[in-house]
Amino acid sequence: xxxxxxxxxxxxxxxxxxxxxxxxxxxxxxxxxxxxxxxxxxxxxxxxxxxxxxxxxxxxxxxxxxxxxxxxxxxxxxxxxxxxxxxxxxxxxxxxxxxxxxxxxxxxxxxxxxxxxxxxxxxxxxxxxxxxxxxxxxxxxxxxxxxxxxxxxxxxxxxxxxxxxxxxxxxxxxxxxxxxxxxxxxxxxxxxxxxxxxxxxxxxxxxxxxxxxxxxxxxxxxxxxxxxxxxxxxxxxxxxxxxxxxxxxxxxxxxxxx
Length: 258
Description:
- This protein has helices at residues 35-49, 60-70, 82-90, 122-126, 142-153, 157-161, 174-179, 190-196, 226-236, 239-247, and strands spanning 25-31, 52-58, 75-77, 95-104, 106-111, 133-136, 164-168, 185-189, 202-206, 213-220.
- The two termini are 17 Å apart.
- It is 35% helix and 23% strand.
- The chain folds into 2 domains: 25-103 and 215-247, Periplasmic binding protein-like II (D-Maltodextrin-Binding Protein, domain 2), CATH 3.40.190; 106-206, D-Maltodextrin-Binding Protein, domain 2 (3-Layer(aba) Sandwich).
- Helix 2 (60-70) runs parallel beside helix 3.
- The radius of gyration is 19 Å and the shape is globular.
- It has 10 helices and 10 strands.
- A 5-stranded mixed β-sheet has the order 2-1-3-10-4. Strands 7-6-8-5-9 form a 5-stranded mixed β-sheet.
- It is of the alpha/beta class and 258 residues long.
């Protein structure tokens, strides 16, 4: 069984899609933080190929569940590559082709002006006594999984959990929790910081790491429109797509085939 075909390039309730035999509809399962990026490409792709995109968004766990249950849809676009590994373990659907979109990175989000005077490396920051932290849930979200993995390698995940006041199901509510004074700090994607444009209320503290989370989009083996799905992968490789990535703070660079 084919697991991955990789190319050499560099809020709404989730629903079960209605089966479509028409060539002119493409169903994309998209994890929440990637929705703005897909929306930025929607008009251009629909006009070029005279089709319609149907975007189904939620956290990665729910999306995987819907794909596995319905065995319908054309493309899967989670926050990180790690979601594909989970997907392949849980589903009889597999990936027939995939494309690297770019790289995202983690960043700390704090209130504007840094009222708690949080300084130093991430270990000292997250270990501050009395700090209120909110994380994405590692059991439901690619961001949460990546956050746990990164902090575990630093040896500070369990200590940081002692200050966690809530786990968000996905990336959507993290920055809002800081804006609304429900938490002192969170870890989110840098792309979310760019997208939400909340720089009047919050600021970011870069995390000193060379680790980047690679973002892939994959064609599902259950696709009713594999040709159109591959056209979308080609469109993602276009200059228009690259310009959109920069808008959301996603880095694009060449990478070896895996």
